[in-house]
Amino acid sequence: MLNESTSYLKIEVIGETLENSERVIHRRKTCIGNPAEHFVTEEVIRVPVAKPEEPVKVSIKPIVTKKVRARNAKGHYVADNPDTSENEAWVTKVVKKVKSVRKSKPRKKKND
Q1: 36-85 tens-digit pLDDT
Q2: Are strands 65-69 and 9-19 parallel, antiparallel or unpaired?
Q3: Region at 75 (left for phi over 0; alpha for psi -120 to 50; beta for the rest)
Q4: Total domains, the chain
Q5: Does the residue 109 lie in any domain?
Q6: Nearest CA-CA partner of 30 in 13, 9, 6
Q7: Where are the beta strands (DSSP E) in the chain?
Q8: What are the pLDDT digits (tens) for 7-43?
Q9: Same domain, yes or no: 14 and 40
């Protein structure tokens, strides 16, 4: 919106200030479509500034991890290679929190 220059119109932002709750933009438009005639105009644009929203509160939950036996693509356990310093037989996995299943109340019987 502020700098929409094209092949026949050149737009330059001269200055930009903040007044009260408005952003005031001074820009110059130069029309270069016709080589015989060049038009230069200056304009002032006032854009209302939105009020800053309340900061978003982010709660960081700790990630719970657990060491489990490593498995290959077939599901078989992976053995540790004694030649390496790392123990390949165990890996760390993120534990997903399991939602508790709420038992439903027994239905009320209709009396006929």
Answers
A1: 777 788 888 888 887 766 677 777 777 788 899 999 999 999 999 889 88
A2: unpaired
A3: left
A4: 2
A5: no
A6: 9
A7: 9-19, 22-34, 37-48, 65-69, 90-94
A8: 778 888 888 888 888 888 888 888 877 767 777 888 8
A9: yes
Residues in the chain, total? 112
Secondary structure (DSSP) of 48-59:
EPPPPPPPPP-P
Assess contact for 76 and 56: CB atoms under 8 A.
Answer: no
- Chain centroid offset of residue 54 CA: 17
Tokens of 2: 């502020």
Alpha carbon of residue 72 to chain centroid: 35
- Whether residue 22 is contained in a domain is answered as yes
**Gap between the Cα atoms of 60 and 112, Å rounded:** 55
Cβ neighbours of residue 79 closer than 8 Å, sequence gap 6 or more? 88, 89
Q: Residue 69's domain spans which residues?
A: 63-95
Q: Which residue's structure tokens are 């438009």?
A: 29
Q: Which residue has the tokens 């900061």?
A: 55
